[in-house]
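Extended Data, panel c. Modelled sequence:
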Amino acid sequence: MGTNGKKAPIEIVSLPEYAPADTSFVVSTLCSLGPDFFAHNEAPHRHEFYTIYWIKTGELTHTIDTVTHVVKKNTLFFLAPRQVHKMHFSEKVDGYMIAFPDAFMCLQEAAATAGIQTGLFINNQFSSVITLDQEQEKEFEVIVQRMIRELAEKEAGYETALHSLLRYFLVLASRIKGASMAAVPEQFAAHNGSLFLHFKNLIEEQYHQLKNVSEYASRLHIKPVLLNEISKQLSGITAGEHIRNRIILEAQRYLYNTDLTAKEIAYRLGFEDPHYFSRFFKKYTGQTPSEFRDAARAGAPVQQ
């Protein structure tokens, strides 16, 4: 809490805070992360990196943005960078955390990874929660143990090995979730997937400044109508809806996790007119900012 009684701003956590020795890739049991990790995660915060949690035993109450999930044993969940979340662990919880920056799944391979990232990390629900059966648990355990070994021994080519193991981990998870690229002619699928991933990354970087599809299309060197077609093809919604959803999501994060006024939030999100922001928010959510804040804090829905 700040001196004025307001909730503190949402903290941004960088990977070195979890991995001072190696900032390119982290794989660790939850218990070995220590008590500071658990205490830290009680407060709303964002990661600058991709994170995968695997809860093997115990239970976790996890709030991502404004939705609370009760995560029980043998459950994977995936967090994209900049999502606001907080976690409350049961006393006997254990499992794994895998964390890596965007550079580790570099954009040079965007065409190959677009389907995976769109399905697991970048989706309309802004989260993925996957429960593993006994056979799947065994398969993922082998992969994670190999990651831990590669990271500990650091033999020649270990980064390539980690990259391949992570890719395999994500492919298996994507299969279980049932996420797949839309059925499109093969010669266009990879290119469109790469463009869509660039579009989603551009939204993350520019949604404070850019609000129109034409502005994003211009930076991607394509026509707005084509960007909308690719977006609908790969995600089921238009490019404009993705932009609006991202702005609304950020507004909801501030409303739920801080005590900033609607006017303060409007300026943070790049709106020059706070009244327009309030009308924009109500148009796409059906609630005023204050109505949303009151309803969300009264009790977020729980998903099993």
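Residues 179-190 have pLDDT under 50 and may be disordered. This feature is highlighted in the accompanying rendering.
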